[in-house]
Amino acid sequence: MKIGIIGIGLTDFRIHKEPFYNLAFEAAKKAVNDAGIDRGDIDSFVLGGYDNLGVGRTIANMYVAPAAGGYLRHEIRVADDAAFALPMACMRILAGLSDICIVVGFGTTSEIPLELVELQSLDPLFYRPTNLSIWAYYAIQKYAYSSKFGVDEERIAECVVRDRKNARSNPYAFKREELKLDDVLNSEYSVYPLRKLETAANCDGAVALILAEGTIAKRLSDSVVWIKGFGWSNSNYYFEDFERLPATKFAAKMAMKKAKMDNIKAFENYEVMDLVSNHQLMILEALGLADWGKGYEIADSLNLNSSGGALSTNAYGTTGLFLLANAAIKLREGLFDSSLVHAMSGYARRSCVSLLGV
């Protein structure tokens, strides 16, 4: 059975002053209008986001579902980055439980103390009491990666410059100011050796995608973006192998197996969730596009993060779905024929990979 994306809706991504459920309403309405359907045609609502942690309200899906049109309809929530909601929606369609499904991702980073919230991702008995902040962990990861493989500071900083250059042409991106290499290298530290310009730019926003079973998708749309495969993986709670991203590696393998593909280099476009600068290279390596420590050698040769990546736009809870929606737009516009979209969460211990094509 084939599954296609027939509707796409995004809010603008910035620091919003309005309630997060208004953003979900806006994104869902845009997606419904884009698909040319009525709200009543949707038989399943899959929400993605960090619920009370990400938006500071208990059982936040009770706000989001009605706002997105899911009042008295079947609704289920994935308490993670909304990119992880896509496999859930696909499996509902594959199981015959849904014909037309909407995936709604919501994120309002500006309303929460992100470092305190992310502590909840840690093992509650051993790691959480250490109060190891997300940026401190990523700083350790950057140091371990650059030391293990001898990757120069300049090669890592280039990832920020590359993302910001691409973000300039993306009207949905949050940070679109041009950066030069010296700007990054001379910026102040967040946590040594990680500089502030090497960390994701936090903002608010929402994304909605409408998925449909293959025959229905063809009937409703002349510009279907097909979901070829998807996969996800979790690492264990305990920190090890700082220099690599094992969850990303296994999620990619699962997605490729689902798509019956064996060449990870066959995609025309790659969107990766680089929450910090070195993640961009580490993700390319974990995907199998480059040898360990050699991601910088191929980064410039790929169509990489045409959206601007997470380094330009990070709405905690929907960043991965933001990247996926941007990839789908590029495919619909005919700029690419295929895309691999990556997302991760929980101190980079969880990962999701989606494969798109036309």
Describe this structure in words.
The strands form 2 sheets. Strands 3-2-4-7-1-8-11-10-9 form a 9-stranded mixed sheet, with helices on both faces. Strands 5-6 form a two-stranded antiparallel ribbon. A hairpin with a 2-residue loop joins β5 and β6. 36% of the residues lie in helices and 20% in strands. It is globular, with a radius of gyration of 19 Å. It is built from 13 helices and 11 strands. By secondary structure, the protein is α/β, with parallel strands linked by helices. The protein has 2 domains: 3-114 and 203-225, 3-Layer(aba) Sandwich (Peroxisomal Thiolase, Chain A, domain 1); 128-200 and 226-357, Peroxisomal Thiolase, Chain A, domain 1.
CATH H-level superfamily title of the largest domain: Thiolase/Chalcone synthase
Which residues form runs of ≥5 with pLDDT under 50?
none
* Helix fraction bin: 25-40%
% residues in beta strands: 15-25%
Gyration radius, in Å: 19 Å
Q: Tell me the span between the first and last alpha carbons.
A: 15 Å
Total domain count: 2
**Largest pleated sheet:** 9 strands, mixed
Mean pLDDT: 94
* Proper CATH architecture of the largest domain: 3-Layer(aba) Sandwich
| Overall spatial form | globular
In short:
With 358 residues, the chain is an alpha/beta fold. It has two domains: 3-114 and 203-225, Peroxisomal Thiolase, Chain A, domain 1; 128-200 and 226-357, Thiolase/Chalcone synthase (Peroxisomal Thiolase, Chain A, domain 1).
